[in-house]
């Protein structure tokens, strides 16, 4: 196997392992639009990285963290519905990023690579960052698991039981933001939320407990990465979209088996 394909496979498996459990909370708490908002803001992070002279990936991470904090704080206001705020931020940031890129005449950006992902271009440094970051994110999720699970059932009840709901909500949003930022290079801006939602949605039909659903989501995500990269190699198709198509096929097979 060529080395670039080995790097892509190891990076994709590490990302799927982390995205599966977080995808469960995205499904349970109906945070899909939150993930889309972070993804659409990625191009603005790329511009920020270029203007400040840092790596575009680091610019995406920094912007995602800032947006997670802002969106978490905005949930307390009552003047606008949360989905309205997310829609404004998502499309405003995407449009601003595209306009800013067009104004940077001296900079050439692989726009399709950011939109659809470029997993075959990852290096061993990217692989190490994905596995280390994913491991730390899963460790934090494990520490907060009881609180987050109680919040997913009922936030008021969780607060009455003594859980720090506001802190847990903020930490969850920050962790999801980091996972989304890490997934950009694999499946791109347009498809990043699919890697969180589809395996978790498929795992729901196979699990009897929340913990089982998290494990199944990770396994199905890893299977989608292996199948998608194999299909991309065999049929010469884009790698990121191929991974998402494989996840959709697995979801369909799970639903057929359930029936």
TrEMBL record:
<dbReference type="InterPro" id="IPR001626">
    <property type="entry name" value="ABC_TroCD"/>
</dbReference>
<keyword id="KW-0406">Ion transport</keyword>
<feature type="transmembrane region" description="Helical">
    <location>
        <begin position="40"/>
        <end position="73"/>
    </location>
</feature>
<keyword id="KW-0862">Zinc</keyword>
<protein>
    <recommendedName>
        <fullName>High-affinity zinc uptake system membrane protein ZnuB</fullName>
    </recommendedName>
</protein>
<keyword id="KW-0812">Transmembrane</keyword>
<keyword id="KW-1003">Cell membrane</keyword>
<feature type="transmembrane region" description="Helical">
    <location>
        <begin position="116"/>
        <end position="142"/>
    </location>
</feature>
<comment type="function">
    <text>Involved in the high-affinity zinc uptake transport system.</text>
</comment>
<feature type="transmembrane region" description="Helical">
    <location>
        <begin position="213"/>
        <end position="233"/>
    </location>
</feature>
<feature type="transmembrane region" description="Helical">
    <location>
        <begin position="85"/>
        <end position="104"/>
    </location>
</feature>
<comment type="similarity">
    <text>Belongs to the ABC-3 integral membrane protein family.</text>
</comment>
<dbReference type="InterPro" id="IPR037294">
    <property type="entry name" value="ABC_BtuC-like"/>
</dbReference>
<keyword id="KW-0472">Membrane</keyword>
<keyword id="KW-0864">Zinc transport</keyword>
<feature type="transmembrane region" description="Helical">
    <location>
        <begin position="6"/>
        <end position="28"/>
    </location>
</feature>
<keyword id="KW-1133">Transmembrane helix</keyword>
<dbReference type="Pfam" id="PF00950">
    <property type="entry name" value="ABC-3"/>
</dbReference>
<feature type="transmembrane region" description="Helical">
    <location>
        <begin position="239"/>
        <end position="256"/>
    </location>
</feature>
<feature type="transmembrane region" description="Helical">
    <location>
        <begin position="170"/>
        <end position="201"/>
    </location>
</feature>
<keyword id="KW-0813">Transport</keyword>
């Amino acid at each position: 196997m060529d080395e670039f394909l080995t790097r892509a496979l190891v990076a994709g498996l590490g990302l799927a392992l982390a995205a599966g459990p977080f995808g469960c909370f995205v499904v349970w708490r109906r945070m899909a639009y939150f993930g889309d908002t972070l993804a659409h803001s990625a191009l603005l992070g790329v511009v920020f990285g270029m203007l400040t002279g840092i790596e575009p990936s680091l610019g995406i991470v920094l912007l995602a963290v800032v947006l997670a904090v802002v969106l978490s704080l905005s949930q307390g206001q009552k003047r606008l519905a949360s989905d309205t705020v997310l829609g404004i931020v998502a499309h405003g940031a995407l449009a601003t990023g595209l306009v800013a890129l067009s104004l940077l005449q001296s900079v050439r950006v692989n726009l399709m690579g950011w939109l659809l992902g470029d997993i075959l271009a990852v290096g061993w440094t990217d692989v190490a960052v994905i596995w280390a970051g994913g491991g730390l994110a899963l460790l934090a999720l494990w520490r907060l698991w009881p609180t987050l699970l109680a919040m997913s059932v009922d936030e008021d009840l969780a607060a009455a039981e003594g859980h720090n709901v506001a802190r847990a909500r903020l930490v969850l949003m920050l962790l999801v933001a980091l996972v989304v930022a890490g997934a950009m290079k694999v499946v791109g801006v347009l498809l990043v939320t699919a890697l969180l939602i589809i395996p978790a949605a498929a795992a729901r039909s196979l699990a009897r407990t929340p913990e089982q659903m998290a494990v199944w989501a990770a396994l199905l995500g890893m299977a989608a990465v292996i199948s998608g990269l194999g299909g991309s190699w065999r049929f010469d198709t884009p790698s990121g979209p191929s991974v998402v198509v494989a996840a959709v096929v697995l979801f369909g097979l799970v639903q057929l088996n359930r029936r």
